[in-house]
Amino acid sequence: MFRSFRSFNYRTWFLGGVISNIGGWMQATAQDWVVLTELTDNDATAMGVTMALQFGPPLVLVSLTGWVADRFDRRKVLLCTQTALMLLALGVAALLLTGVMTLPLMFVFAAAFGVANAFDAPARQAFVSDMVSLEDTSNAVALNSAAFNMARLVGPAVGGILIVLLGSGWVFVANAVTFLAMIVALTLIRVNELTPRVKSRRGGGGLGEGFRYVWGRPDLMVVFVMVFLIGAFGMNFPIFASTMALEFGRDADGYGLLSSVLAIGSLAGALLAARRDRARVRVLVMAAGGFGVASLVSAAMPSYVTYAAVLVLVGFSTVSMLTTANGYVQTTTDAALRGRVLALYMAVIMGSTPVGAPIAGWIVDTFSARTAIAVGGIAGIVAFGIGVGWMLWSGRLHRHEGRRFRLTLDETRPLSVIRSMNPGSFDERPTAATPIRLTDPHDDER
């Protein structure tokens, strides 16, 4: 389960990430609570707009951020983005502590956080594969998710308590301090032990090259569509948890506790994913279905305790889906294009929020929080249906050869992928993934 820890670089990165992520979850809790209760009168729509501004830049800047992740030294890129995020956190803290923060100013800072994260996310995701071998990449991705959710267990609960005891401004100060852990980790990494970068032999290419690659991979297209549906309509947890906490008569600490409970299931899902030898699409499909069912059940829970209990299942299915999708994209993508493909993937995940968060906020204000959660559950069921439909169409789910009325799922059945790029653009190293048969798109014309 912990085979990636054999790498000194990854161990160092993991420790810095845990500390920094704790601060990040503390800040996320404080920001949501400030917008919902201090800058507005429980306005879920304003909270949705804040999320849209924060997660919109990865979608708008995707053509640039993926190119930067592939073109420049990812460690240096991360040093710049982590420093920028630390300074932004200190800026918000200063405005909150002096009492001059307004909703428009918070919108501006949310957008600035989004721009910094737009460059940080693809470089950070691709940097994982620079620190470990290809065989350990899926494990490293899962452990990264585990670290993220270990922090999620602690961060929101601590953030909620600090808001009550000290005020929201000091939570942003605490987060700024935790960024130092990641900055120190990046400076300690042994550059000579990083995996040599594989670059495309074609000049330029940019995002278009990555997009053509994904377009020629039906399996990646299905993964992206499923992640978008659930990301847009089902993963608006700050809106859902905060408004449900208010419905049950809880304060900021009650909201923080819900986020931590969600992380219990998330951590279990990440650790289970770390045990798998590779990422499989069937796990992604089943997790999407589980998310849909768990979300619909949570929307019907009558009390704070029962709602919190079901959130464990929601967290488990969510992280199982995202970790599997991330690992599958990383381990089956050509190394020379990994940064651009991951930028597209992160744009789908983070860019889905500007689409779904304002809608979710409007549904909460117009109908109820339970209705918005149910809509997210339906999105999960639809994503599950798309995944099953693709498995049938691709031949992975088919009738058992020896038994007439039995179905079997074949993970090794080759996929036919259109060669949309110059063969010279591809890495020569074998990929630990489902065998892929490359065919000429003109074969049918001959």
Automatic annotation (TrEMBL):
Q: Where are the transmembrane segments?
A: 12-28, 48-69, 170-191, 220-242, 254-274, 281-301, 307-329, 341-364, 370-393
Q: Where does the record place the Major facilitator superfamily (MFS) profile domain?
A: 1-397
List where in the cell it is found. Cell membrane
Tell me which domain of life the UniProt entry assigns to the organism this sequence originates from.
Bacteria
The record describes its membrane topology as: Multi-pass membrane protein
- Main localization is membrane
Give the protein name, as stated in the record.
Answer: MFS transporter
